[in-house]
Write a structure and sequence with these properties.
about 260 residues; alpha/beta; Rossmann fold; seven-stranded mixed β-sheet; 11 helices; globular; binds adenosine-5'-diphosphate; binds magnesium ion
Length: about 260
């Protein structure tokens, strides 16, 4: 990659494929030789358990770094691939940092001294914790928004784009939306096709051409704590995420 990027993968709704997207893109980038850091900001800590197992509880997490202003804890999880783990305490972040001056720039500050060690940093954003999401956006160069095709997809999208506008207007003018990616897509469902058309008519080329199709292999791989490219490199999930990464790279090079 030509420059360094920090990308927030964000949505206001849970279950839309944020964690799956961060895990797949991160694994692939690392395999391609890019020094990659994944940051789990979500109190559900699904990204952490995908890579470290459900039972493993790291001694320090992103939460400790936020509270104590200590360094971000970094765990090596593969060649070129590091992880900052999360904990369920991230759900209570708001009450702890609310009164702190510069509360929206804490993650940006924590990344200051380490971001140059990486070619790319991917942040798995929380869906309900607005201060966690704002911190992610203030620290990022861009945002990728996964959208799952259901009737409320568009509503969640408006909330994220408003948060991007707030972050960019008030704190981080370089922040941009890389794209909106349809996940768990099934071209035989009329709802999915209709939602894609509606999104394209509102957001035009921001909607990525690559769709991530519904693929149970992605669920199975996550349950086994394996990345999709190890689990089944030929399945639709692996193919779609590889195509998505190529499309994102082309977009980033144009910015
Ligand atoms: N393309 C897909 N096809 C089928 N299941 C998927 C797909 N993407 C994600 N999933 C599954 O859907 C659930 C929610 O995905 P996840 O990535 O955890 O969403 P989020 O992080 O937005 O809450 C998980 O069980 C995941 O394995
Ligand atoms: Mg998640």
């Amino acid at each position: 990659m030509r420059r360094k990027y920090i990308i927030s993968v964000a949505s206001h709704k849970g279950g839309v494929g944020r964690t799956t997207t961060v895990a797949a893109l991160g694994t692939l980038l690392a395999r391609q030789g890019e020094k990659t850091l994944l940051i789990d900001m979500d109190s559900q800590r699904n990204l952490t358990s995908t890579f470290l197992g459900i039972k493993y509880m790291p001694r320090t997490t992103v939460f400790d770094a936020f509270c104590n202003e200590a360094d971000l804890p970094i765990i090596n999880i593969g060649e070129n691939l590091d992880l900052v783990p999360s904990s369920i305490e991230m759900g209570g972040l708001e009450s702890i940092i609310m009164k702190r001056p510069g509360r929206e720039s804490i993650l940006a500050g924590l990344l200051q001294s380490i971001k140059n060690l990486y070619d790319i940093i991917l942040i798995d954003c929380p869906s309900q914790n607005w201060i966690g999401m704002l911190n992610s956006f203030v620290a990022s160069t861009s945002v990728l928004i996964p959208i799952c095709c259901d009737s409320y997809a568009a509503e969640g999208l408006i909330q994220v784009t408003q948060m991007v506008e707030l972050a960019s207007y008030s704190f981080n003018p370089i922040l941009a939306v890389d794209g909106i990616v349809l996940t768990r897509y099934n071209g035989r469902r009329t709802l999915d096709v209709a939602i894609e058309q509606e999104l394209k008519s509102h957001y035009g080329s921001l909607v990525m051409n690559t769709r991530i199709r519904e693929n149970s292999k992605l669920v199975q791989a996550a349950l086994l704590g394996q990345d999709i490219f190890t689990y089944d490199p030929d399945c639709n999930g692996a193919i779609d995420y590889a195509n998505l990464l190529e499309e994102i790279k082309l977009k980033l090079e144009k910015i």
